[in-house]
Protein backbone atom coordinates (compact mmCIF):
# COMPACT_ATOMS: atom_id res chain seq x y z
CA UNK A 1 0.00 0.00 0.00
CA UNK A 2 1.25 3.47 -0.88
CA UNK A 3 0.52 6.13 1.72
CA UNK A 4 1.35 9.81 1.95
CA UNK A 5 4.08 10.42 4.51
CA UNK A 6 2.70 12.64 7.26
CA UNK A 7 3.58 13.36 10.86
CA UNK A 8 0.56 12.12 12.83
CA UNK A 9 -0.28 14.08 15.95
CA UNK A 10 -2.13 11.69 18.25
CA UNK A 11 -4.68 13.56 20.35
CA UNK A 12 -6.10 10.55 22.19
CA UNK A 13 -4.77 7.04 22.81
CA UNK A 14 -5.54 4.70 19.97
CA UNK A 15 -8.96 3.14 20.31
CA UNK A 16 -10.05 5.45 23.16
CA UNK A 17 -13.72 6.45 23.15
CA UNK A 18 -15.30 8.52 25.93
CA UNK A 19 -18.86 7.71 27.00
CA UNK A 20 -20.10 11.19 26.07
CA UNK A 21 -22.74 10.20 23.53
CA UNK A 22 -26.30 9.97 24.83
CA UNK A 23 -29.61 8.87 23.27
CA UNK A 24 -31.94 11.79 22.61
CA UNK A 25 -35.08 10.09 23.88
CA UNK A 26 -36.86 10.86 20.60
CA UNK A 27 -38.70 7.94 18.98
CA UNK A 28 -38.32 8.17 15.20
CA UNK A 29 -40.76 6.69 12.71
CA UNK A 30 -40.50 5.93 8.99
CA UNK A 31 -43.86 6.44 7.24
CA UNK A 32 -44.45 5.10 4.65
CA UNK A 33 -41.80 2.39 4.46
CA UNK A 34 -38.86 2.65 2.08
CA UNK A 35 -39.41 1.14 -1.39
CA UNK A 36 -39.61 -1.40 -2.87
CA UNK A 37 -39.18 -4.51 -0.75
CA UNK A 38 -37.68 -5.81 2.48
CA UNK A 39 -34.27 -6.39 0.86
CA UNK A 40 -33.94 -2.63 0.41
CA UNK A 41 -35.62 -1.71 3.70
CA UNK A 42 -33.15 -3.89 5.62
CA UNK A 43 -30.13 -2.52 3.75
CA UNK A 44 -30.13 1.29 4.15
CA UNK A 45 -26.44 2.13 3.86
CA UNK A 46 -26.07 5.86 3.27
CA UNK A 47 -27.91 9.18 3.32
CA UNK A 48 -27.34 12.87 2.65
CA UNK A 49 -29.53 15.98 2.84
CA UNK A 50 -29.88 19.52 1.51
CA UNK A 51 -32.66 21.97 2.31
CA UNK A 52 -34.53 19.32 4.29
CA UNK A 53 -34.69 16.95 1.32
CA UNK A 54 -32.61 13.82 1.64
CA UNK A 55 -31.45 10.86 -0.41
CA UNK A 56 -31.17 7.34 1.01
CA UNK A 57 -29.19 4.58 -0.68
CA UNK A 58 -29.08 0.86 -0.08
CA UNK A 59 -26.60 -1.86 -0.97
CA UNK A 60 -29.07 -4.27 -2.56
CA UNK A 61 -30.64 -2.38 -5.49
CA UNK A 62 -29.93 -0.13 -8.48
CA UNK A 63 -32.00 2.77 -7.16
CA UNK A 64 -32.02 5.36 -4.39
CA UNK A 65 -34.98 7.03 -2.72
CA UNK A 66 -35.66 10.57 -1.61
CA UNK A 67 -37.12 11.31 1.79
CA UNK A 68 -38.22 14.32 3.78
CA UNK A 69 -36.87 14.83 7.27
CA UNK A 70 -39.31 15.96 9.94
CA UNK A 71 -38.92 16.58 13.66
CA UNK A 72 -38.97 12.88 14.46
CA UNK A 73 -40.17 11.38 11.18
CA UNK A 74 -38.61 10.12 7.96
CA UNK A 75 -41.03 10.33 5.04
CA UNK A 76 -39.82 8.36 1.97
CA UNK A 77 -40.93 9.85 -1.35
CA UNK A 78 -39.80 9.31 -4.97
CA UNK A 79 -37.50 6.56 -6.20
CA UNK A 80 -34.70 7.40 -8.65
CA UNK A 81 -33.01 4.75 -10.78
CA UNK A 82 -29.21 5.06 -10.79
CA UNK A 83 -27.99 2.15 -12.92
CA UNK A 84 -29.33 0.59 -16.14
CA UNK A 85 -29.87 -3.12 -16.51
CA UNK A 86 -26.77 -3.54 -18.68
CA UNK A 87 -23.68 -1.53 -19.56
CA UNK A 88 -21.64 -2.51 -22.60
CA UNK A 89 -23.51 -5.80 -22.77
CA UNK A 90 -22.63 -6.65 -19.15
CA UNK A 91 -25.51 -7.21 -16.76
CA UNK A 92 -25.47 -4.81 -13.86
CA UNK A 93 -26.21 -6.29 -10.45
CA UNK A 94 -26.90 -4.05 -7.47
CA UNK A 95 -24.88 -0.83 -7.19
CA UNK A 96 -23.81 -1.93 -3.70
CA UNK A 97 -24.21 1.72 -2.72
CA UNK A 98 -22.51 2.39 0.61
CA UNK A 99 -22.55 6.16 0.99
CA UNK A 100 -24.12 9.42 -0.15
CA UNK A 101 -22.98 13.03 0.04
CA UNK A 102 -24.18 16.44 -1.10
CA UNK A 103 -21.81 18.83 -2.89
CA UNK A 104 -22.98 22.48 -2.87
CA UNK A 105 -23.42 24.73 -5.89
CA UNK A 106 -20.48 26.88 -6.98
CA UNK A 107 -20.00 30.06 -8.97
CA UNK A 108 -19.25 27.86 -11.98
CA UNK A 109 -22.25 25.56 -11.48
CA UNK A 110 -25.54 26.86 -10.02
CA UNK A 111 -26.65 23.33 -9.19
CA UNK A 112 -25.73 21.23 -6.22
CA UNK A 113 -25.11 17.50 -6.68
CA UNK A 114 -25.89 14.32 -4.82
CA UNK A 115 -23.07 11.78 -5.02
CA UNK A 116 -23.51 8.05 -4.43
CA UNK A 117 -20.54 5.68 -4.08
CA UNK A 118 -20.45 1.93 -4.55
CA UNK A 119 -18.38 -0.23 -2.22
CA UNK A 120 -15.61 -0.77 -4.79
CA UNK A 121 -15.12 -4.10 -3.07
CA UNK A 122 -15.83 -7.76 -3.63
CA UNK A 123 -19.08 -9.39 -2.64
CA UNK A 124 -19.43 -12.27 -0.26
CA UNK A 125 -17.48 -15.34 -1.26
CA UNK A 126 -15.21 -13.03 -3.24
CA UNK A 127 -17.65 -12.34 -6.09
CA UNK A 128 -16.57 -9.55 -8.46
CA UNK A 129 -19.50 -7.31 -9.40
CA UNK A 130 -18.65 -4.62 -11.92
CA UNK A 131 -21.70 -2.65 -10.78
CA UNK A 132 -20.06 -2.05 -7.36
CA UNK A 133 -17.23 0.00 -8.92
CA UNK A 134 -19.21 3.15 -9.77
CA UNK A 135 -19.39 6.62 -8.38
CA UNK A 136 -22.66 8.28 -9.43
CA UNK A 137 -23.78 11.91 -9.28
CA UNK A 138 -26.72 14.01 -10.44
CA UNK A 139 -27.64 17.72 -10.22
CA UNK A 140 -30.27 19.12 -7.86
CA UNK A 141 -31.66 22.54 -7.13
CA UNK A 142 -29.76 23.75 -4.04
CA UNK A 143 -32.88 25.46 -2.64
CA UNK A 144 -35.25 22.50 -2.91
CA UNK A 145 -32.99 19.47 -3.16
CA UNK A 146 -35.03 18.27 -6.14
CA UNK A 147 -33.34 16.97 -9.29
CA UNK A 148 -33.16 19.49 -12.11
CA UNK A 149 -34.46 16.88 -14.59
CA UNK A 150 -37.30 14.42 -15.00
CA UNK A 151 -36.57 11.06 -13.39
CA UNK A 152 -38.31 7.77 -12.64
CA UNK A 153 -37.54 4.38 -11.16
CA UNK A 154 -37.26 2.50 -14.45
CA UNK A 155 -34.47 4.08 -16.52
CA UNK A 156 -31.59 6.30 -15.41
CA UNK A 157 -31.93 9.81 -16.85
CA UNK A 158 -29.15 11.12 -19.08
CA UNK A 159 -28.27 13.68 -16.39
CA UNK A 160 -27.17 10.89 -14.03
CA UNK A 161 -23.43 10.56 -14.51
CA UNK A 162 -21.29 7.62 -13.48
CA UNK A 163 -17.57 6.85 -13.45
CA UNK A 164 -15.55 3.76 -12.61
CA UNK A 165 -12.14 5.49 -12.54
CA UNK A 166 -11.85 5.32 -8.75
CA UNK A 167 -11.22 1.60 -9.20
CA UNK A 168 -7.78 2.30 -10.65
CA UNK A 169 -7.01 4.92 -8.02
CA UNK A 170 -7.75 2.41 -5.25
CA UNK A 171 -5.49 -0.16 -6.91
CA UNK A 172 -2.67 2.38 -6.98
CA UNK A 173 -3.10 3.45 -3.34
CA UNK A 174 -3.95 0.06 -1.82
CA UNK A 175 -2.20 -2.41 -4.10
CA UNK A 176 -2.05 -5.18 -1.47
CA UNK A 177 -5.70 -4.90 -0.46
CA UNK A 178 -7.72 -3.75 -3.48
CA UNK A 179 -10.30 -6.22 -4.81
CA UNK A 180 -9.82 -8.72 -2.01
CA UNK A 181 -12.63 -10.03 0.21
CA UNK A 182 -13.55 -8.10 3.33
CA UNK A 183 -12.54 -11.01 5.57
CA UNK A 184 -9.07 -10.81 3.99
CA UNK A 185 -8.83 -7.13 4.92
CA UNK A 186 -9.85 -6.04 1.46
CA UNK A 187 -10.77 -2.54 0.34
CA UNK A 188 -14.37 -1.50 0.90
CA UNK A 189 -15.63 2.11 0.72
CA UNK A 190 -18.43 2.86 3.20
CA UNK A 191 -18.28 6.61 3.84
CA UNK A 192 -18.26 9.69 1.65
CA UNK A 193 -18.24 13.39 2.56
CA UNK A 194 -17.40 16.67 0.84
CA UNK A 195 -15.02 19.02 2.68
CA UNK A 196 -13.21 22.12 1.44
CA UNK A 197 -13.26 21.12 -2.21
CA UNK A 198 -12.23 17.52 -1.56
CA UNK A 199 -14.20 14.32 -1.57
CA UNK A 200 -13.30 12.17 1.41
CA UNK A 201 -13.85 8.45 0.97
CA UNK A 202 -13.87 6.48 4.22
CA UNK A 203 -12.76 2.86 4.05
CA UNK A 204 -14.14 0.09 6.20
CA UNK A 205 -11.22 -2.02 5.11
CA UNK A 206 -8.37 -2.40 5.23
CA UNK A 207 -7.60 -1.88 8.92
CA UNK A 208 -3.84 -2.04 9.45
CA UNK A 209 -1.97 -1.74 12.75
CA UNK A 210 -4.84 0.05 14.43
CA UNK A 211 -5.41 2.49 11.57
CA UNK A 212 -8.35 3.02 9.26
CA UNK A 213 -8.03 5.11 6.10
CA UNK A 214 -9.61 8.03 4.30
CA UNK A 215 -8.77 8.53 0.62
CA UNK A 216 -8.89 12.19 -0.42
CA UNK A 217 -9.63 13.22 -4.01
CA UNK A 218 -10.22 16.73 -5.36
CA UNK A 219 -13.90 16.80 -6.25
CA UNK A 220 -13.07 18.50 -9.55
CA UNK A 221 -11.03 15.45 -10.59
CA UNK A 222 -13.64 12.79 -9.92
CA UNK A 223 -15.37 12.86 -13.30
CA UNK A 224 -12.38 13.42 -15.54
CA UNK A 225 -11.07 11.11 -18.23
CA UNK A 226 -8.24 9.50 -16.25
CA UNK A 227 -8.06 7.94 -12.76
CA UNK A 228 -8.00 10.85 -10.30
CA UNK A 229 -4.90 11.38 -8.14
CA UNK A 230 -5.43 10.84 -4.43
CA UNK A 231 -3.79 11.06 -1.04
CA UNK A 232 -4.49 8.80 1.92
CA UNK A 233 -4.95 9.83 5.54
CA UNK A 234 -4.48 7.13 8.22
CA UNK A 235 -6.76 7.54 11.24
CA UNK A 236 -5.78 5.75 14.50
CA UNK A 237 -9.20 4.38 15.44
CA UNK A 238 -8.06 1.09 16.98
CA UNK A 239 -7.52 -2.54 16.08
CA UNK A 240 -10.12 -4.03 13.73
CA UNK A 241 -11.92 -0.68 13.42
CA UNK A 242 -13.08 0.57 10.06
CA UNK A 243 -14.98 3.63 8.84
CA UNK A 244 -18.69 3.00 8.36
CA UNK A 245 -19.75 6.54 7.40
CA UNK A 246 -18.58 10.15 7.18
CA UNK A 247 -20.63 13.31 7.68
CA UNK A 248 -19.37 16.84 7.11
CA UNK A 249 -19.93 19.22 10.05
CA UNK A 250 -18.72 22.69 10.96
CA UNK A 251 -14.93 22.55 11.10
CA UNK A 252 -14.47 18.99 9.92
CA UNK A 253 -16.22 15.62 9.69
CA UNK A 254 -17.86 13.13 12.00
CA UNK A 255 -16.59 9.59 11.57
CA UNK A 256 -18.88 6.65 12.31
CA UNK A 257 -16.60 3.74 13.17
CA UNK A 258 -17.29 0.05 13.66
CA UNK A 259 -15.84 -3.38 13.15
CA UNK A 260 -13.79 -3.74 9.99
CA UNK A 261 -14.41 -7.45 9.56
CA UNK A 262 -17.68 -9.24 8.91
CA UNK A 263 -19.67 -10.86 11.70
CA UNK A 264 -20.31 -13.76 9.33
CA UNK A 265 -16.58 -14.18 8.72
CA UNK A 266 -14.96 -12.80 11.90
CA UNK A 267 -11.21 -12.24 11.89
CA UNK A 268 -10.95 -10.07 15.02
CA UNK A 269 -10.83 -11.70 18.43
CA UNK A 270 -12.30 -8.67 20.21
CA UNK A 271 -14.40 -6.72 17.68
CA UNK A 272 -15.22 -3.10 18.59
CA UNK A 273 -18.64 -1.56 19.18
CA UNK A 274 -19.82 1.37 17.03
CA UNK A 275 -18.38 4.77 17.97
CA UNK A 276 -18.28 8.34 16.68
CA UNK A 277 -15.21 10.55 16.26
CA UNK A 278 -14.56 14.12 15.19
CA UNK A 279 -11.80 14.81 12.68
CA UNK A 280 -10.77 18.19 11.33
CA UNK A 281 -10.06 16.59 7.96
CA UNK A 282 -6.55 18.03 8.02
CA UNK A 283 -3.69 15.71 7.05
CA UNK A 284 -1.54 14.80 10.02
CA UNK A 285 -4.23 15.45 12.64
CA UNK A 286 -5.74 12.50 14.48
CA UNK A 287 -9.46 12.27 15.25
CA UNK A 288 -10.93 12.92 18.68
CA UNK A 289 -13.24 10.26 20.11
CA UNK A 290 -16.69 11.56 20.98
CA UNK A 291 -17.74 8.23 22.44
CA UNK A 292 -19.17 4.80 21.89
CA UNK A 293 -22.82 4.60 20.83
CA UNK A 294 -24.56 3.59 24.07
CA UNK A 295 -26.45 0.33 24.24
CA UNK A 296 -24.85 -1.11 21.11
CA UNK A 297 -22.45 -3.98 20.62
CA UNK A 298 -20.03 -5.20 17.93
CA UNK A 299 -22.78 -6.95 15.96
CA UNK A 300 -24.95 -3.83 15.67
CA UNK A 301 -24.32 -2.66 12.12
CA UNK A 302 -24.42 1.13 12.43
CA UNK A 303 -24.16 2.17 8.77
CA UNK A 304 -25.45 5.74 8.40
CA UNK A 305 -24.67 8.92 10.32
CA UNK A 306 -27.01 11.75 9.33
CA UNK A 307 -26.33 15.11 10.97
CA UNK A 308 -29.31 16.98 12.42
CA UNK A 309 -27.32 19.74 14.17
CA UNK A 310 -23.66 20.23 13.39
CA UNK A 311 -22.67 23.20 15.55
CA UNK A 312 -23.59 24.92 18.79
CA UNK A 313 -23.63 23.35 22.23
CA UNK A 314 -24.00 19.78 20.94
CA UNK A 315 -24.04 17.64 17.83
CA UNK A 316 -27.33 15.89 17.07
CA UNK A 317 -27.36 13.04 14.63
CA UNK A 318 -29.36 10.07 13.42
CA UNK A 319 -27.82 6.63 13.12
CA UNK A 320 -29.37 4.05 10.79
CA UNK A 321 -28.56 0.35 10.82
CA UNK A 322 -28.05 -2.39 8.28
CA UNK A 323 -30.32 -5.29 9.17
CA UNK A 324 -33.03 -3.19 10.85
CA UNK A 325 -36.27 -2.49 9.03
CA UNK A 326 -36.15 0.97 7.41
CA UNK A 327 -32.79 1.51 9.06
CA UNK A 328 -34.19 1.53 12.60
CA UNK A 329 -33.26 5.22 13.08
CA UNK A 330 -31.94 6.25 16.51
CA UNK A 331 -31.10 9.81 17.52
CA UNK A 332 -28.07 10.69 19.67
CA UNK A 333 -26.34 13.83 20.87
CA UNK A 334 -22.69 14.44 21.69
CA UNK A 335 -20.59 17.30 22.97
CA UNK A 336 -18.14 18.72 20.41
CA UNK A 337 -14.45 18.17 21.25
Please indicate the percent range of residues in DSSP E strands (runs of 2 or more): 35-45%
Q: In which order are the strands of the major sheet placed?
A: 2-6-5-4-3
Major β-sheet annotation: 5 strands, mixed
| Shape annotation | globular
Average pLDDT across residues? 92
What share of residues is helical?
under 10%
Number of helices: 2
Q: Tell me the structural class.
A: mainly beta
Spell out the helices and strands N to C: EEHEEEEEEEEEEHEEEEEEEEEEE
Q: How far apart, in Å, are the first and last alpha carbons?
A: 31 Å
Stretches with pLDDT under 50, minimum 5 residues: 1-19
Q: In total, how many beta strands?
A: 23
Rg calc = 18 Å
Can you walk through the features of this model?
This protein has helices at residues 38-41, 166-173; strands at residues 21-23, 29-30, 44-50, 53-58, 63-69, 73-81, 86-87, 90-91, 97-103, 112-118, 135-140, 161-163, 188-195, 198-208, 211-218, 231-236, 241-249, 252-259, 275-279, 288-292, 302-309, 315-321, 330-334. With 337 residues, the protein is mainly β. A hairpin with a 2-residue loop joins strand 3 and strand 4 (53-58). The protein is globular. The two termini are 31 Å apart.
Amino acid sequence: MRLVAVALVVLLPMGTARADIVPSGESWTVVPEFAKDDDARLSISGAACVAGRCLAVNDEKKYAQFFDLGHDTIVPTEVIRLLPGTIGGVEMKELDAEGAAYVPATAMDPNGHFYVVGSHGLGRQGALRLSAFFLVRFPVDPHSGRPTFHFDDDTPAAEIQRTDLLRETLKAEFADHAEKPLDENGVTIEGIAFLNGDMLLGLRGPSIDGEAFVMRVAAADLFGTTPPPATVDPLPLGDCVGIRDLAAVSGGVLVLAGRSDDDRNPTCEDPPSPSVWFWTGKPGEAPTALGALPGLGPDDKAEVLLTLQDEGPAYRFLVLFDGKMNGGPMEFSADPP
